[in-house]
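note to self — DONT lose this again. spent like an hour looking for the file last time. sequence + predicted structure for the chain T wanted, 253 res
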Amino acid sequence: MKKFLILALAFALLAVALPATAQDGTVSMLIRIEPKAGMTDQWEEGVKKHMEFHGQQGDTWSWAMWEVISGDKTGEFTVGTYGHEWSDFDNMPVSGPEDEADGKKTTEAYTESVSIMYSNYMPEFSLPPDGDGPSKLLSIFTVYVKPEFEEDYVNAIRKIPEALKKANSSIRYFFADVVIGGRQPAYRIVIPADSFADLAPPATPFRRMLEEAYGASEADAILDTISRASYGSNSELLIHRPDLSYTPSSTSN
């Protein structure tokens, strides 16, 4: 399958709900965690206790937990906080030695590895759905871009929201730049859904939407640019775990 078809598939999926984001910023902090083999239950119990600690400390940030249920990292977890400015991370409401000490006490013994990524949401390249609160599922496509073609890639992607609007498409997604963590340049297409049925491709093929908006020649140019600029991708499906998440109003147990 050509590389542009992988990306086209990402845009051809349907989504209807919003990942948790209550602030006005665009930066997300995403912590990927791999529990030790055979210790996922103990790790989850530790996470619940650590989220209770955040509540006791009066944390004003939300932390949404997602479990990877499809992809190379099935069985791992991602906890994210969304909608921040970069400067927010200089003064996180709950961090530092006490937070680290509680994390060591509650989860460290059951944790195999931890990695952190920062991504920047790009609203001008996105078609976010209406609504608020995390969706049940997140389908995430990460696309790796050749540095010498990054500007071409971004310019091609910029044209997609307008095409979907002209086609009155129900496709909704978030587009983000991976700023820190992992291979770069890389971009993420995040497609929220409330059910597996919502992930079914729409009736109108993605390429036809581009043709209707820009004509056949321009549609070919957009897809060719995406294909030339990208050198790989991966995908995974995440399910929201409200029992392991935290919101400022309460802990979810």
